[in-house]
């Protein structure tokens, strides 16, 4: 109800004061870019695509400085770095009190 009473200028000022990183705003409204220009003319999508394709075909390719020759290797061959060895067989030593150690050494598999 309060927003309906505001003028467009006041709404624009309020929009500029809003946090741009607010995740509740849609991404299109988080952007500070504002363009108040009128459209230059109607958009004809087919003509636009035809023009872009025509420009792409008419634009000459940039020539290679060194032409491709089969069998010639340029630069260094990439060698992946060696993976560190997986040392999961490391022995772990645990310091137990004398009572626990004697109880575990004398226990059977079923008692453990």
UniProtKB/TrEMBL annotation:
Chief site of localization: cytoplasm
Isomerase found in the keyword field: no
InterPro entries: TMOD
Keywords of the record: Cytoplasm
Domain of life: Eukaryota
Gene Ontology MF annotations: tropomyosin binding
Cellular compartments annotated: Cytoplasm
Cytoplasm recorded as keyword: yes
GO cellular component, one term: cytoskeleton
A biological process from GO: pointed-end actin filament capping
Protein name: Tropomodulin
Source organism phylogeny: Eukaryota, Metazoa, Ecdysozoa, Arthropoda, Hexapoda
């Amino acid at each position: 109800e309060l927003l309906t009473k505001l003028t467009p200028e006041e709404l624009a000022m309020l929009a500029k004061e809003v946090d741009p990183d607010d995740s509740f705003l849609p991404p299109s409204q988080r952007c500070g870019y504002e363009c108040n220009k009128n459209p230059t003319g109607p958009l004809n999508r087919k003509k636009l695509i035809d023009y872009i394709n025509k420009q792409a075909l008419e634009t000459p390719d940039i020539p290679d400085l060194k032409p491709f020759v089969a069998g010639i290797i340029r630069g260094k061959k990439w060698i992946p770095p060696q993976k560190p060895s997986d040392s999961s067989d490391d022995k772990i030593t645990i310091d137990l009190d004398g009572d626990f150690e004697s109880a575990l050494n004398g226990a059977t598999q079923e008692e453990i």
